[in-house]
Design goal:
alpha+beta, five-stranded mixed β-sheet, single chain, Heat Shock Protein 90, 7 strands, 6 helices
Length: about 160
């Protein structure tokens, strides 16, 4: 919430340092392996070694955690999550895809609206406030990056974060 407030005030501070996006992605995955296993979710990873950039390590860890948490919540039992990290020219690209029982009916950009929760989210036992993806996008932007979503019919969604390096 502090980051969203700071963004509204025009200052989302980032404590930048050189870091390995590849390493951060591997670490973030480790903390989600147990919940994925418990739900029978298949994990596919394609993490190119040595993808690095200058960014706030804590903010990128949080961004990865938010995206992975969202994927685990909405993938459903027996689904699939795929995380890739690649160097594309002068940009580092993080891509997270997950299957979902039903795609949202709103345009993908609506998913980043603060407090937006889709129909599937409102009926889940595990609640949320609808700010995770808004915070994730703010974290990307605070580090000169971007975060976008794309539907992959019939039952998958892709989140792509890109950062200069």
């Amino acid at each position: 919430m502090k980051l969203l407030y700071a963004e509204d005030e025009g200052a989302a501070p980032a404590q930048k340092a050189a870091l390995s996006l590849s390493g951060l992605a591997e670490q973030a995955l480790e903390s989600f392996l147990q919940p994925m296993e418990a739900q029978g979710i298949t994990l596919e990873r394609d993490i190119q070694p040595g993808v690095s950039l200058t960014a706030d390590p804590a903010q990128l860890e949080q961004l990865l955690s938010l995206l992975l948490d969202n994927a685990v919540k909405y993938t459903g039992p027996g689904g699939r999550i795929r995380l890739s990290v690649k160097q594309e020219g002068k940009r580092a690209r993080l891509c997270l895809e997950n299957t979902c029982p039903q795609l949202p009916t709103v345009p993908p950009e609506k998913l980043f609206d603060r407090f937006y929760r889709g129909d599937a989210a409102r009926t889940q036992k595990e609640g949320g406030y609808g700010i995770g993806l808004a915070v994730a996008r703010s974290l990307a932007q605070a580090n000169q990056g971007s975060l976008h979503a794309q539907y992959l019919p019939p039952q998958a969604i892709r989140f792509v974060a890109q950062f200069p390096n």
